[in-house]
Amino acid sequence: MLGTMELHFNPGTVIEVALRQIAAMNNAFSEDFEPEVRPADPKFGDFQANGVLGFAKSKGANPRALAQQLLEAAQESGQFDPARVELSLAGPGFINFKCTPRYLWDWLNRYADASDFQTGAGKLQAGRKVVIDYPSANTAKQAHIGHLRPMVIGEAIARLLDFCGAETLRDNHIGDWGTNFGTLIMQIKREGIDLNQLVTDPLAQLDQLYKDGSALEKDAPEIRDQSRAELLKLQEGDPENTALWERIVDISKAAFETLYQQMGVRIDVTLGESFYRDKVERVYRELTEDGFAESSEGALVVWHDDVKKFARDNERPYPFNIRKKDGASNYASTDLATILYRVEHYKADEVVYLTDARQQDHFQQLFLTTQKWFAARKYPIPDTRHVWWGTILGKDKKPFKTKSGESIKLQALLDEACERAFTVVTEKNPELPESERRTIAESVGIGALKYADLSSNRTQDYVFDWDRMLSFEGNTAPYLLYAVARINSIFRKAELDPEAPLEGASLLETDTEFALARKLISLPSALNLTLNDLRPHVLCTYLYELAGAYSTFYNADKVMVDDPGTRTRRLLLCARTRTVLITGLKLLGIQPLERM
Ligand code: ARG
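^ thats the input. predicted complex w/ arginine below
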């Protein structure tokens, strides 16, 4: 019974499970029936089962008659207590479920604070071990705007999976074994640089050394040869070059660590490409033995003839090149060794990779190769997902760059965000002491940057716009942070703790109260939808709509009225909205504020 279903965190799931059971016992339905329960248009109810429509179509049946039959069976099943939920038929064959005021009230009381949400949400991904590969930057290069999305999106997804009960491992797969080290070591030696003497911003200096080195290589074959020789020495374990390489990697790690701190990125392990250099031999051997890899013009490649997508001509798709002509490992061989390690060592059920859109082909090939290889060897095959994104554009709709056409440094971007936020915060609260305005500005500035990135559908490009992201109106971080601060001030004025239990609330009455309550109980659906395809903008949209429902409620219904039952229930709605907003913001990596 829905009423006795311990007020499941996600009522939608309860409805879905019940409908599946009921259909399974009904002759008119078959095994392949999926109820497809989704949040409904609030005018009609809280949840809607859409599945009958498609099912009826595929069977050539009348959808409305079939939906009517399922609805009656559901009512007779005793699984839907009319005191908890009302069922109705709609449109060409939808079934709507409207939670009763009693049910809403009970749910709001049952799921009261962040730990209750966590307990509820923790069932969504429980028992899954997920390795998340991010931010995985390349070493010896300064962080630039291109590093923003892996940090922001990666962290949000990791937090979301954690919250929903997965056991996550944040694995920073840095690019620390590339050909760039040859050039870099060559140039360091040419200029006689002592890496321990680089004091101010050593990573920026390394970046410059590399640029100078590659500029020299352009017209000088003998310098190119020197770089190649340095790379070979490094690969063969020469002590001097190994020491230089280690120092370079350390400098990079330290610089990135500072950024992670400021961005709230938490990493569990850093196992870069170099970690797998002794693990690629097994990849070559197994894939060759199993007949998946063959040599082609000196390189080792894996063909996937079953995928026409990679074909440039009509003959054969591109192969997956897993070893270079000169015998060196590459990005692909390293990634194959890495996924095996993640399954064998970390027992990953799923591996999630975060990079920009340009690496889609690589990951399709990687996943295909892994599936065939692991199936042949009877290794457990993990779920794999490539979470990719589009480009950050300037107002001219071209990739966002500095005025002189260079890539924007990430630190400069963060500094500007905080500075601009400081101006905005000062305008709003000139009376606050400067130190407090600075703290607020840090959260607002970095939060605005993150939110702008997260709230746009990640697979699309978006236009970077300071004024928009820092606005207190619209789907922005300041708008949501301000909503929380306003609720805080209600409780401050009432001298109440917003997290203390509220007793004696009467049942909901006004339309705006209902609309807000319904939005609150759709948090689990929003989390589920966000998880489905790992798209944080779904959660952003939900939070924005919730803040909107709150604002409508607040404008229509006075909170601090005399009647204690009404006052308490309105305070309860304020408190719940606050908790859901705070929970959501934290999942997105944004630090909520007491006041602003
Ligand atoms: N270092 C790569 C880059 O900057 C991203 C690595 C992504 N992870 C992976 N396992 N391939 O493009």
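DSSP finds 21 helices and 13 strands in the chain.
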